[in-house]
Amino acid sequence: MKKWMIAAKKADFNAIAARYNISPMLARIIRNRDVTGDDAINMYLNGTVSDMHDPHLLKDIDKAAMLIAEAVSLGTKVFIIGDYDIDGVCSSYILLKGITSCGGNAVVRLPDRVKDGYGMNMSMVDEAIGQGAGLIVTCDNGIAAYDEVEYAKDNGLKVIVTDHHEVPFKGDGGKRNYIIPQADAVVDPKQEECTYPYKEICGGMVAYKLMLCLFELTGKSTDIKDELLMFAGFATVGDVMELRDENRIAVKFALEQMKTTSNQGMKCLIDVKKIDRDRLSPYHIGFILGPCINATGRLDTPTRALEMFMKQDPGEALLIAEELSSLNDSRKDLTEMYSKEAIDKVLNDEGQRSDRVLVVYLPECHESLAGIIAGRLRETFGKPAFVLTKTDDGIKGSGRSVDAYDMHAEMTRCSDLFIKFGGHKAAAGLSMDEDKISELRKRLNDNCTLTEDEMAEKLTADIALPLSYATYELAEELEKLEPYGIGNPHPLFAQKDLQISDIRVFGKNRNVVKMKLSEAVPRSQKVDAICFGDGDAIEAELVKKDRISVMYELGINEYNGRSNVQLIIKDWK
Questions:
Q1: Is pLDDT at 76 greater than 70 in this prediction?
Q2: Do domains 55-222 and 349-455 have the same CATH topology?
Q3: For residue 142, what are the contacts with CB-CB under 8 A and spacing of at least 6?
Q4: What is the pTM of this model?
Q5: Which of 23, 349, 464, 466 has the most crowded CB, counting CB atoms within 10 A?
Q6: Section 66-85 average pLDDT
Q7: Per CATH, is 459-572 categorized as 2.60.40.290?
Q8: Which has the closest alpha carbon to 363: 345, 380, 347, 382?
């Protein structure tokens, strides 16, 4: 059972509403997003690309741009090392397109998830040496590659690290001693000495900022700035960054650019997935387009996605887009199969069902799917979950957590069981020996003191909103808050004691339930409402109730040329 809460953050909503010509209700929602102060509110409502932060504020970025400009002028080969996910692919594309458009000689090396693992390694440095490269530039990785950078430097290469991940550190009496690779330039907003005002940008955004500085130095390639920002915004959603501050501006810009993009790969992928360009949203990037890019890194090679974006010929780009879509379909089929197996393992094992922390071993599952399946377990059972798989190099696994459980901290308490582990509060990865799996499950559960109530998912409504206020005009005004995503969720409203009528189930898989809701007062107007899930089961529960309380989003339903307000029910009791 989810815990319901109503946000209660304070501000002078009437004053904010008057200043920005919005309703007090919209002002309240903006405050609930922790957007405060005139500059922040104005940027949130009216921000444009010109309001994004000055790239020169990133530590070492001018030094990095100078090194690349020097390589371009000397004809030195630039060896770009990316990553196998959407952010790694997009940031690699941004650097490759930016550097070559300035006349540079650049190549990209993306890691194989299984053979290479994450990020820069020694064999990649050897490849750079073998190809006669004089400069290595990392993107979306490198901040933890201390030894690899040192190896490259010892062999006469210059190295630029561009990354957005946390800087590794060692604890010393409560003080953190940060370990920065000794590269010629390190561009990462998470560095302690970096003055960049917004730290939560993705690797693609860091790469984009670096290319802006390069273009200033060379006086070239201003005509591709918009395309590179489109890819940075695309990566921002795909890498699950918060849609706050300049991230929100970048994503808004990217969605507009994607509607008319001349990039054949992006156009073909949108067409293959049959997405209406005029209705593009972060949802389409995060759940339809992005997974096609990630699927290549999970089940094949991420190089195919990069090739697709580089293609000039529409036919060639289309072939790869279809291949990526098919690969993602295979990934989805495998995910469904192993998710069902994982859920059944928990349901059919009394001990597992009673565990507060789930540890499920799927020896046949591809290691790249473990994190997705762990997320499914967390959603199904409302508990932290680890999924372990068997590989040629031993046991590997991924974990996904609930809000109240600090996964990385709890893994640290039994770190002796791991060969290697890392992550943060919400997610983690690990490798270990097979004979220690049962001990891991035991110790994680013995150490966990959280109650079911503490682990329950929390739903926080912005406003308790009577249906009489859930108007078409409000639904239209809410569009000023788009795009929605992590850090800027769709506004959520709550109302209790609503009467239900006209329940019906439809959809190909009977997964859509429509109904009408009204307040329990005379002559109350009925409002259309919709929810998704197991339609027959939902209907069976609803018909038993006289009234329900709901958490809902407010939307506009367009059908047969008519538009009307509609509640999208996210939870009900």
A1: yes
A2: no
A3: 81, 119, 120, 149, 161, 162, 163, 181, 183, 186
A4: 0.88
A5: 23
A6: 96
A7: no
A8: 345
| CATH topology assigned to domain 349-455 | Diaminopimelate Epimerase; Chain A, domain 1 (3.10.310)
Identity of residue 254: A
CA atoms within 13 A on the CB side of 279: 4
Q: Domain 55-222 is in which class?
A: alpha beta
- Number of Cβ within 10 Å of residue 564's Cβ equals 13
The pLDDT of residue 549: 94
**Distance (Å, rounded) from C-alpha 429 to C-alpha 440?**
14
**Residue found by looking up tokens 């859920």 in the block:** 343
Say how far apart CA 90 and CA 296 lie, in whole Å: 13
Domain ranges of the chain: 6-46, 55-222, 349-455, 459-572
More confident residue, 507 or 20: 20
For residue 173, pLDDT over 60 is answered with no
In the prediction, which pLDDT does 174 show?
66
End-to-end CA distance of the chain: 9
Give CA–CA dist 21/559, Å, rounded: 30
Interatomic CA distance for residues 166 and 199, integer angstroms: 10
**What is the rounded distance in angstroms from the CA atom of residue 187 to the CA atom of residue 201?**
12
Tell me the C-alpha distance between 389 and 374, whole Å.
11
Cα dihedral: 108, 113, 116, 118 (round 10): 80
| CA–CA separation, 518 and 513 (whole Å) | 16
Q: Where are the alpha helices (DSSP H) in 102-244?
A: 122-130, 146-154, 203-218, 225-238
Q: What is the pLDDT of residues 376-398, one digit of tens each?
A: 999 899 899 999 999 888 899 99
Q: What does each C-alpha distance from 78 to 11, 70, 131, 158, 412 come to in angstroms?
A: 52, 11, 10, 10, 39
Which DSSP symbol is given to 475? Answer: H
